[in-house]
Amino acid sequence: MGGVWLMIAEGFAGITEKGGTLLLRPVLPSVWEEYSFPYVYRGRRLHITIQQNELTGQKVSGEELDIQIGQEKICLKAQVTRKITT
């Protein structure tokens, strides 16, 4: 089961890290409507949902977090959901 989660998080969501910033380069297979998953990064709990042309990132707990989706940088704040066109 852990392999499937890893494939979704690091494969389809394209999660990597560069210089202390969490990078996401999501891909949604054409036959899927959406996928979502929890993610813990440096003590911050996140919930990420990916739909066609849209990514919603919610910081569930922990301090503010800078993330980058494609070329766009945003700051996730406590209990705030941000939608970004990918």
Brief digest:
With 86 residues, the chain is mainly beta. It is built from 1 helix and 8 strands. Helix content is 13%, strand content 52%.
Structure, explained:
The relative contact order is 0.19. Strand 1 and strand 2 form a beta hairpin. This protein is 13% helix and 52% strand. Strands 1-2-6-7 form a 4-stranded mixed beta sheet, with no helix packed on it. A 4-stranded antiparallel beta sheet has the order 3-4-5-8, covered by helices on one side. It has one helix at 2-12; strands spanning 16-18, 21-24, 34-41, 44-51, 54-61, 65-69, 72-76, 81-84. The protein is mostly beta strands.
Features of this protein?
86 residues; four-stranded antiparallel sheet; 1 helix; mainly beta; single chain
Number of helices: 1
The stretches of 5 or more residues where confidence is low (pLDDT under 50) are: none
Helix content: 10-25%
Distance between the termini: 28 Å
**Total strand count, please?**
8
Order of helices and strands: HEEEEEEEE
Radius of gyration: 12 Å
Structural class label: mainly beta
Shape: globular
Placed side by side, the strands forming the largest sheet appear as: 1-2-6-7
Query: Major sheet: size, sense and barrel closure?
Result: 4 strands, mixed
* Overall average pLDDT: 84
Strand content: over 45%
